[in-house]
Amino acid sequence: MGSTNAEAMNAAMSGDAGKTWFAALQQTEGRGRRGRAWESPHGNLAASLMMVPDAPAAGLAGLGFVAGVALNAALARLIPAAAIRGGIDGADGTAGGGRARIALKWPNDVLADGAKLAGILLEAQKRPDGRTAIVIGIGVNVVAAPEGLPYPATSLATLGAPFDAPSVFEALAESWVECYEIWNNGAGTSRIINRWRQSAAGIGAEVAVQRGDGVLRGIFETIDDAGHLIVRDDEGHRIAIAAGDVHFGTTATLR
């Protein structure tokens, strides 16, 4: 398949009622944020959920956090908690008061041992009937991770988790149902973001955020209830960031 997101959006524009998954074992035209290519060899999971929610347009971005919480929960169940090691680039998460192998990286990645294991891409488009279609694309490195990236990436196979893409999809679909019910057409956004925050990588660590106007460095304080990254800069100002590329640890301190 070229792109599950493209297939899902085509269905939305053709009048599909939504709540439909589009999944593939390989994508030839996968993409990530800002139109970046995302490699997906055969055996990895590419899945897109198309929805036409009955929720205020301003709250639809919360679905990205629903997807993050659902994917994080699914992967945490699949990957054993044993043999925990320090996260690459200072990106450990926490669970039960200790380190967690699986953590959420703002705004749309899932990390395992600090390396990228999965990514999420949220796209929206107005349909001919005036309603907004949302496509939530999810890619999981099941059998292999892309090489030559400017950041570390890993796969379930590398982590010693013997699961195939259908098993990962099944776990994801189950988690999605639970998290979507909590979201409740936007009424439960704060509950979802609180769950996201509890699994966030890098809170309290040095962070560098690449934005269109340059790089902001400081301490990653929290995610606010609107889903913004809150960074405290060197002068003590708390800055809310709606979009940007995040780097932790050593990378964050490079000048």
UniProtKB/TrEMBL annotation:
It is an enzyme of class 6 (ligase). The chain crosses the membrane at residues 55-75. It catalyses: biotin + L-lysyl-[protein] + ATP = N(6)-biotinyl-L-lysyl-[protein] + AMP + diphosphate + H(+). Keywords: ATP-binding, Biotin, Ligase, Membrane, Nucleotide-binding, Transmembrane, Transmembrane helix. Pfam families: BPL_C, BPL_LplA_LipB. One of its GO terms (molecular function) is ligase activity. Its EC number is 6.3.4.15. Residues 1-184 form the BPL/LPL catalytic domain. This is biotin--[biotin carboxyl-carrier protein] ligase.
